[in-house]
Structure prediction request, 892 residues.
Amino acid sequence: MNDEIDISQLETAEILELIQDDLYDGLADEVVVSVKELLNRDMTPYDVLTQGLVAGMAVVGNDFRDGILFVPEVLMAAKAMKAGMEILRPLLVETGAPQVGSMVIGTVKGDIHDIGKNLVAMMMEGAGFNVINLGINTDADAFIDAIREHNVDILGMSALLTTTMPYMQVVIDALKDQGLREQIIVLVGGAPLNEAFAEEIGADAYCRDAAVAVETAKKLIAIKRGQLT
Amino acid sequence: MPSGRKGSVPRGSNLLQAAQELGVELESICGGRQTCGKCQVIIESGHFPKHGLTSHPDHLSPPSPLESEYDQEHNLNGRRLACAAEILADVLITVPEESQAHKQIIAKEATQRFIEIDPAIRQVYVEVEPPELGDPRGEWERIALALEKQWSLQELTIDSKLLPDLQSSLRAGDYKVTVTLWQDKEVVRIQPGYSEGSYGVAIDIGSTTVVAHLCDLRTGDVLATQATMNPQVRFGEDLMSRISYINSEPQGFVRMNRMIIKSINELIEKATAKADLTPQDITDVVAVGNTVMHHIFLGINPTQLGVAPFALAIDSPIDLKARDLGLSIHLSGRVHLLPIIAGHVGADNVGVMLAESPQEQDEVTLIVDVGTNAEIILGDKNKVYVASSPTGPAFEGAQITHGQRAAPGAIERIRIDPKTLEPRFKVIGYPQWIASGSNGLIPSEVKATGICGSGIIEAIAELFLAGIIDSKGHFLSTSADRSSRVHYDVGEAYYVLVDEQLSSTGSPIVITQEDVRAIQLAKAALYAGTKLLMDHRSITKIDRVILAGAFGTFISPYHAMVLGLIPDCDLDKVNAVGNAAGDGARLALLNKQLRLKAARIARTVEYVETPLATNFQDEFVAALNLPHASDPFPHLDGVLPLPTVEVQKKRKNRIRSKYRSRS
Prediction:
């Protein structure tokens, strides 16, 4: 499809719009071409990220929340986003661009389901977060080691079974013991959870789906950084 | 309540009205005059995290004078008359079976199957030498000798509980007795004189339903079949909620164990009464059930089955005495449990394999037991694989806006006219199709209460076939232009299946975008599990599909395939077999060789832990589409809508479409 458009003929604003639409359509190769073109035009990697990729994924997130898009389409979009990110990531580090935020995520001990959690991880990456995905059956020690090692802003925990969700409490208690609870935002999610449960175990928020997780993460980080009250 | 229905009603409504509003019909002869006593309900007390409420008898109005009068005369035993009790705050209600106006529909009749009768229990008649002075041998030893001489039975033992009555039985029969033997090893009953008739019970302990088949062990005839709701349902619909309840309530496990034993005792009592027998006539029981039910039945706390690695206490077949479990059959009666395969693949699945024997077929057979956890069995005589897939409760009507269990009033069949988008449907308990124009033609009491699992499967498939949703499961905004039944707005889309005039609640019954998504997730889990087993067996097509379980009986194979619940297959080779697990239990009850066979099956099938497979996620995502993103369905050629021109999708790629239209 690439050859249909001579991208060099487009205005920069049009390329940004194109990136957003191509993300929506899950066109990874096309996104890469556009990202490279914008960099060639001396747009900063941070602007390409925020005005192109992150803005595009925000649209995807909204339509997912509204039931217009479903898991397969969101995954395609996330893959396209990832392709664009691979070009940007080293450049972002090089230019010392501000970080959106970072997150450690995992399915708790005793639980081996991870599709929903992976979707959250991808949407968070789509929103520009740096995500460390610990996979399934993760115990408190593994969570804490990763939090220490990567010094992240957010801990995300997932459980699909009513029998495994109480383990989230164990992790939060361990965070408190280690004096880490105050410095980190704890988000929880998974089919059997609800807001009351999140409150009961002392998490910062329950996230119903991946789109809500992204919105909540952004909001809580802004509050934490004093940008919002 | 055991129906699993919940909802809010105005403060001051009485329980009878509330139950009706929620689609639960209570028995009532007096029509709410607090005199007939038919609408008795049990008020649960305590905190129920599963339902998110605290229930207490004080949350109802105190008994009225009429109700107190009824109580004095008939003793309500703590129960309340639903028509008298007004709701003041949250309550959890259990409706006893006798108060239910319509019993549950359970497709658990015993199926006709070829069975070779060779039971573990048999009766033999012997004439025993009477005692004499100078012969010091005990009475049992003389019975044993007679059994050896007349029947060549050696090394027999006798159940100790028979000893107190041994001598009186011998004398009552003038030293002629009928001895009942278990596995030709142990004497479990001694009857004076010649006696004929030995009986056993096959039990399927399902998470929702418990079924007992009373069988004549000599003829193999099913004398009575009795079913009841699993009383544990009040602690959670699915197995994991029940384990959570056990984990959170100190007495939870003991209560659940007692409840299931009590239920089974009641089933046996009712079944034997139907056949003019008593529970004392039962000397053998074979039970199957999923792993959690199996453990609870045995008095084993199932906590470990709630968390990975899902460790079983035991997976071998088990023989034990009925009295050790608290079962009220003959005091020396026996119980056999079929083996288990893995943490989530239980004795019920072994029962299915015993009944359907995929391991003996040339054709590759797929057996699917759809429930909260779908079990998948796939293979042929070369190799059989099993897996369990977490489909969630959507197929049982949970998580669906107007979903409900299969009970009278539930919509079970749905057709949507692809041109007009007008629906017609069938509800359980009424044989005719109902359409929106048929108001005057059908009895006014026939109203739809909700949509049950088989109805939901047909509904989503029909929405797809009618072009209301696309292959991605998304409501098409253009379909709102085609019919006023489709509502489309950002963040809210639904199809009106039943107008308010035909709905028991007085408000329309709809299928929403979220309902479609819930079913997509559930069916994708099932399909992906099947695909992984097909990969293991190195095949790309299957020859035969068997839909097992109570639910499978009502699924339309055609709609299941359109939905992509099952892979492509010749539709004539998709069959429902009803309660195959219970049939398996019956086979093992009537033929002891089959118990050995079951043990062999359990050892030779290979269990696949699907969520751990590296390609599970890819298979799952591809299976979300209707019927599938990439797998071909040649048997549906000409049936499926052409891939919709997805012009009107969501968001237009402005720049690309501009260039595309230029070229």
In short: The longest helix of chain A spans residues 71-95. The mean pLDDT of chain A is 93. The interface with chain B takes residues 1, 4-5, 10, 14, 17-18, 21-22, 24-25, 59, 63, 65-73, 75, 109-115, 118, 136-137, 160-164, 166, 191-192, 194, 196 of chain A (CB under 8 Å). DSSP finds nine helices and five strands in chain A.
